[in-house]
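Notes from the pairing session

We agreed to fold both candidates in a single pass and log them together. This is the raw record for the first candidate, unedited. Please don't reformat it; downstream parsing expects exactly this layout.

Candidate A
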Amino acid sequence: MKKILLVLFSFCISICLFAQDTASAEPAATGLRANNKIYVVVAVLVTILAGLFIYLIRLDKKISGLEKSS
């Protein structure tokens, strides 16, 4: 029964997705990409994620050191 419901749900979702159509045939390079500002957004996101990863790695090393000393 679960499989049948899953198949029906997936089918309904796919029908809804096919029903959507683009309103206009504008080129894809609009908004941030047209002004080359998307690179600034990507750079900021990469910087934030790199900072978080570095912070987590350093925190893990500190916690491991505390666990070894106890």
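Candidate B (folded immediately after A)
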Amino acid sequence: MKKICLYFLCLVGVLVISCEDEPFEDDIQNTVTTCEIAIANTAQAALNFLGVNVDNYTQLCTAYRNALQAQIDTCGDADGSLQASVDGLGDCSNNNQQAAELEGTWLLTAWIGEEAIDLNNDGTPSLNFLDELDCYENETIVFDNDGTAVIMSTSFADISFEIIVGTEDEYSYTIACIEELFNSDVTWAQIENTVTISDEGMVSDWTLNGNELSTLIPAGFFSSNEDGSVIITQDLILVYTKQ
């Protein structure tokens, strides 16, 4: 794959008019907290679903679908992406998990992190970091039926961040998308819903679920501030969708 260097604006303003406003403020805080819990539950369900197999498909799929729906009910779904994921899971029966043929083109469609972040500073954090970026467009894996494949990269994100003065965990982000065309020739093998990709001695296992192919990259998201005194890491699930 390609080296991912991610360096990390949330501006929060609270105006308290009088003591009569405190219950309203508490309601807002409770709503935010509940939404954060829902997002965290979805992240964990997504990680669990990455290891799905024939025996536990219905159980893990149902848990993931319920977590997505709970996040929609609690946090909203402005762009409809969460509902699209729910719809894609269907009724979570084993009949739904018929895998797409591996041969062909797969497009990178998601970076699923452990905790939602607001990289584009629009006030709405997302678990899918690609929703926060204009980079990594048209990144593909093209599988041939002879056991070879080509991983195609088009860009990478140079993301810097500063800690907002007066806070310890709020950041101001700057993102630069840098064009970088790079192809990597790899080999692959498939056993049931597990696809193993080998790239110059580096081996990774991927999960094939319907028309999605995904893999977990431990600490795949890494960032630090300018002097390196603050470091952020998150595990990443890369998701490619069959075209």
